[in-house]
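Q: Convert this sequence to structure tokens.
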Amino acid sequence: MRIVLDTNVLVAGLLSPFGAPGQIVRLVSSGELTLCFDARILAEYEEVCGRSRFAFDPDAVAALLDFVVFAGETVAAPPLERSLPDHDDEPFLEVACAAHVDYLVTGNLVHFPEQSCEPVTVISPAGFVERYRAQ
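A:
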């Protein structure tokens, strides 16, 4: 299954491995899910995970991102025709549209209004885990 993962879900999964975001990070780490990304998304993952307030082990973050690059799918995405409420979220939707992913998983559903995101299915981490288990 191919997904785009918003940075907030990645960070939440690294902070707490027991919730839905943590389950998703484990599915990515085990190769069960393929992350689709571009250079902007990868740079945001690296920048946010490197913030001192999270105190993530830099080697562990580097290993995870190396795995994402190795096992994931790099996508060249054209710009959106419509803007999102938070322009920083646009790369995630652009990649999701270009890659025709199964889901874009985010903890900020309000930043991805349905009318702006069609035909991409934007879903919360809990909703994604529920659908994944139902397969």
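The chain has one domain: 2-134.
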